[in-house]
Amino acid sequence: MSDSILVNPVDPVYLLWSILREQGFDAAERRALELVAQGATPQLHADLCASAGRFEAAYHSASQAQATDNGVRHARVALFADALGRAGTAQRNSELAVAVQPPAATIEWTRWLIERCGAPSAAAHMLRAYEQHAPQDARASWWLAIALATLPDASARAERRAALLRAYALDPAIHPALPLQLVLAFREIRDWATVERICREVLTRDPADAEIAWQLSHAQWQGNDAAAAEATMRAANAAAPGNPHVLAAIGMYLAEQARFADSEAALHAALASDPSASQAAVDLADLKLRRGDWPGAWPHFEARLRRDDREPNNVVSVMERLCPRWQGESLAGKTLLVHSEQGNGDDIQMVRFVPELAARVRDEGGRLVLAVRRALQPLLARFYANCVSIEDGPLGEPDFGLPIMSVPSTLGLRPENVRGGAYLSGEANRVAAWRERIHASSGEPARMHVGLVWSGSPTHRRDAKRSIPLAALAPVLALPNVVFYPLTPGRDADVAALIAQGYRIRDLTAHYQAGFDDVAAHVSALDVVVTIDSAPLHLGGALGRPVLAMLDHVSHWAWGNEETQPWYDSVELFRQPQPGDWAPVVERVADRLLAMPLSHEHGLEKVPARLDSVDSALVPARLPAHLAAESAAPAQAAFELNSAHRFQDAARFAAQMLAIDSQNAGLHHNASYAYNMLGEFDQMRLHAAEAARLLPDNAPIQFNLAAAQLRFGDFEQGWKQYRWHEALPENHDLVRPDFPEWQGEPVAGRRFLLVGEQGLGDQIQFLRLAAWLNRQGALVDVWVAAPLAELARCASGVRTVWVESPPGPYDFWCRMLRMPEHMKLTLPMLPLAMPYLSAEPALVHRWRQQIDAADATEATDATANADPLPARKKRVGLVWAGNPDYGLDRYRSIALNRWLPILEQSGVRWVSLQIGPAQDEAAALPLDFDVLLPDPEIGNFSDTLAILQSLDLVITVDTSVAHLAGAAGRPVWVLLPTCTDWRWMADRDDSPWYPSARLFRQRELGRWDTVLEDVRTALREFVTV
Q1: Do domains 310-417 and 604-731 have the same CATH topology?
Q2: Which Gene Ontology terms describe the biological processes this protein takes part in (predicted)?
């Protein structure tokens, strides 16, 4: 290379290169050293060594050369130093070279480094130095971006984006590819705002640039504005009509708006313009598949294999180099290789069809081998034995190949051909090991163990659509007594953030040593999987495990357009109502989790036989042993469905079986239970009555009828039927005092012991009967649970309170819930004793002062800030959860974060009345929520009663606080699930038991969203009055 002509750096010394070609490097080097000794520049030897990859020698010779005024020596040293990894030396010499050589020479040199030498890193050193000398030369920034494009590290990509921005700012027209390269660089980091800005600037100059219009529309779509994306492509079509790619894009964006008919018309137009438009064909197949027109979809679906956007080394491309794609040729004596094509989830979804195709291949005298990714092979090999790993082989020499996504079209499948049952299974020993691992990791006992997937691969084109922000998952993550387990590795930062927020999440993915075989075992050991559209969704469905799938508005074609799908019986779909709107999806999933069965560690044998209410016998019932086996089997099936909390299925199944055998008492009983849980009380009463008629001596079934009669206000029959309560198996050891049991005799002047029973709420509710007895002239003592002792002393008509069996003597005793029959209690009698609880005035005063102090602090702050004094806030007590040990607590309790829209109501001083484990949820409230937390100072129910009497309103789920507020005559709003017990009656928003109560009822089991919205609206009105 000549020292004097840098712009032509490839000018050879022909003699030297001839020797190199004819005699080899050693002879050429000897001659080069001779020439240097005779006075030639050492650069000659340096260039020769560099051509042979001997950069150390090249560097040494170049360093020995004399410095020139055009920077050639420094440029060469920089090149060779870069090749040796000496970045500092390369950069210093680049700066020295640039300082003395003309700009044109620098640009020509760097082009030579990039295009001829393949040395982009060296070129980048030179260009960085040159930019310092000529910051206004757009060529330097452009070529720097070109040089950096081939460097792999992330910092090079960031530097390249900056270089492209500089070039674009200096001269947008320096190269036709610059705008698109800039857009793609910012698309890579999902900076959609920058993409939009640049695209709009380009389209202002050239509205017909279809590629830039497409990039703008993609950015708009990523921002959940498919309508704007459609408008962009329509503008591009107007500027240059008939472009099939533009028409296909319009069709895609119409589909994203769920305008499927319009989308199909646009896609047909694209194919009419260009029948080979593969993307339009694939999108048309998508539409047909999602609506169930599979025969019409499959021919278009194959166009996915013709797309020109495939990476050269993707699985399909590699397999096509191995063997030709099967087009239906005879397979006699041949081997067909069915291989992976897209994601792992797609392989799991489609592998179910491989055995059917393998049978056809065998019938032709051929052989089918399944080749999947290494991570899937151990799992799928248990399903299809002749399964090998693509990475590990042996693949042999197959005659034909077939992508696995083409198997359904090859078989001509329709939706009705798909069986949705489980077809994969976890390896038994591995599943057992995972159960142990889960048990060891979960810490304190959990009600449910839930697998969780909230994000997918960021390289997936729909990942921003399908992935859910962590904050949006709060209603699910905050569910009480639930432990969550990520099912995708590499989410360490997210998991750490969730743990820091107090959520119960355990990351065990480090134990995924056997690929999907471990994932399958993990999923098999969990109660349910909650996931976005990802491989674990397909895996859970293929294993037959319960899966709650959270889908974006217009998701993958496999999930159709509704909330049903043919692929997996165990998968439930929860779809966004609008693009980007995850809140309703997450709320519904949270409600569904609450309505699901208990953890496998709390199996069906632990379904409670007695609930904490007067509905205690309303549990799914096994039939008595004396019933015929043919009658027991359907009732047992209904029992199992109820025990698994599948109440709709239980009701539906019972109805079907009763159409065959209407005299099956067990079916009637389980139907009654299911309808009670669903809030369909007319049906509940009908089946309870039939079961009681058919089994007149069965105590649980007879007691169910009492609950049904009382719910509808039939007190005369209901209280008589209530006698069966004492005959329930769990009540065989009820204490009976040694005094006469009251049967309705006159009580004036008599000593009477009123005996509490069942739950605390029941005892509070029926303490009112002490006042009635007192008005009849009785001297009334009560025997109640110890936590109620202080409270009972506040009840009207009570003389003495006992918490253990009193010595007596008494003239009569009676249990609280046997009283109504003997006193002939009717609905009109209920309000007569109201209110019957009142706290000690001194205690009320103490608690009122504490709440006043909170208001005073706020007023002081306002004065200090010279703000107007705030108006007195409404004081509202709140209870959001009950005792978690209660069998149906999952249905009545509501996680506190679900209340946040209500807690935002201005003009309210919130006072937490919550006790128990759920009180910890208050600590996670944002600091700006105004909630007074007196719990540590609440000593007993008397304190709670005193607080209630200091409030304007109480809002509570169905707990003892509802009874306490009602008994004190305080305004109380009670949020009720569909499966509430009989005392709240049916189809009414008030309560004859508590005239101060207002009831807010669920419309659907587990769905609190509409109830909370009703409360929010009512509270807004309450505050403004």
Answers
A1: no
A2: lipopolysaccharide core region biosynthetic process
Structure tokens at 588: 């519904």
**pLDDT reported for residue 627:** 37
DSSP 292: T
> What pLDDT was estimated at residue 208?
87
pLDDT at 12: 46
Q: What tokens were used for 447?
A: 């009600």
* C-beta separation of 546 from 596 below 8 A: yes
pLDDT of 607-662, one tens digit each? 222 223 333 334 444 334 333 333 456 787 788 788 777 888 889 888 888 888 89
CB 273 within 8 A of CB 246: no
**CA–CA separation, 298 vs 303, rounded Å?**
9
Class (C level, CATH) for 841-1024: alpha beta
Q: In what order do the strands lie in the sheet with 751-755?
A: 800-802, 779-783, 751-755, 812-815
Top CATH class, 428-602:
alpha beta
User: Which residues of 636-786 form beta strands (DSSP E)?
Assistant: 751-755, 779-783
Q: Would the pTM count as exceeding 0.70?
A: no
Distance CA 650, CA 99 (A): 85
For residue 778, how far is the Cα from the chain centroid? 60
Instruction: Encode 851-884: b = buried (16+ Cβ within 10 Å), e = exposed.
Output: beebeeeeeeeeeeeeeeeeeebbbbbbbbbbbe
Mean pLDDT, consecutive 10-residue segments, the chain of 1025 residues? 36 62 79 77 74 76 66 72 77 72 64 62 72 80 82 78 89 90 89 92 90 92 90 91 92 90 92 92 93 91 78 71 89 93 91 90 92 91 84 84 93 86 86 90 78 87 87 90 92 92 92 92 94 95 92 91 85 90 92 64 29 37 38 73 82 87 91 94 95 92 94 94 88 84 94 92 93 94 93 92 90 95 91 85 88 69 53 90 82 85 90 85 69 72 90 95 94 95 92 95 87 94 88
| Beta-carbon-side half-sphere exposure of residue 607 (alpha carbons within 13 Å) | 17
DSSP string, 585-613: HHHHHHHHHHTSPPPGGG-GGGS-SS-SS
Q: Which stretch of DSSP H or E encloses residue 650?
A: helix 647-660
Q: Which of 881, 980, 610, 977 is nearest to 759 (CA)?
A: 610
How far is the C-alpha of 426 from the C-alpha of 539, rounded, in Å? Answer: 10
Which of 780, 909, 890, 907 is closest to 833 using CA atoms?
A: 780
- The three-state secondary structure class of 388 is strand
Tokens of 414: 């329709």
pLDDT of 975 reads 97
Find residue 916's DSSP bridge partners.
none
How far is 176 from 699, CA to CA, in rounded Å? Answer: 87
Domain ranges of the chain: 14-175, 310-417, 428-602, 604-731, 751-833, 841-1024
Which string of DSSP letters, residue by residue, matches 446-482? -SEEEEEE----TTSTTHHHH---GGGGHHHHT-TTE
Contact (Cβ atoms closer than 8 angstroms) between residue 831 and residue 995: yes
| Residue 490 CB-half CA count within 13 A | 5
Q: Are 465 and 608 in contact (CB under 8 A)?
A: no
List Cβ neighbours of 194 (8 Å cut-off, separation of 6 or more). Answer: 186
Phi first, then psi, for residue 567 (nearest 5°) are: -80, -40
- List Cβ neighbours of 666 (8 Å cut-off, separation of 6 or more): 621, 622, 623, 627, 631, 632, 634, 635, 636, 638, 639, 691
Burial environment of residue 733 by CB neighbours within 10 A (0 to 12, 13 to 18, 19 or more): exposed
Task: Report the top-level CATH class of 310-417.
Answer: alpha beta
Tell me if the domain spanning 604-731 has CATH number 1.25.40.10: yes
724, two tokens = 């069966």
Tokens of 544: 């037959």
From residue 445, alpha-carbon distances to 441, 599, 912 in Å are 10, 10, 26
Q: Do residues 375 and 386 lie in contact, with contact meaning Cβ atoms separated by under 8 Å?
A: no
Please enumerate in sequence order all residues whose Cβ is within 8 A of that of 977, keeping only pairs 6 or more positions apart, or say none: 679, 888, 891, 892, 958, 1002, 1005, 1006
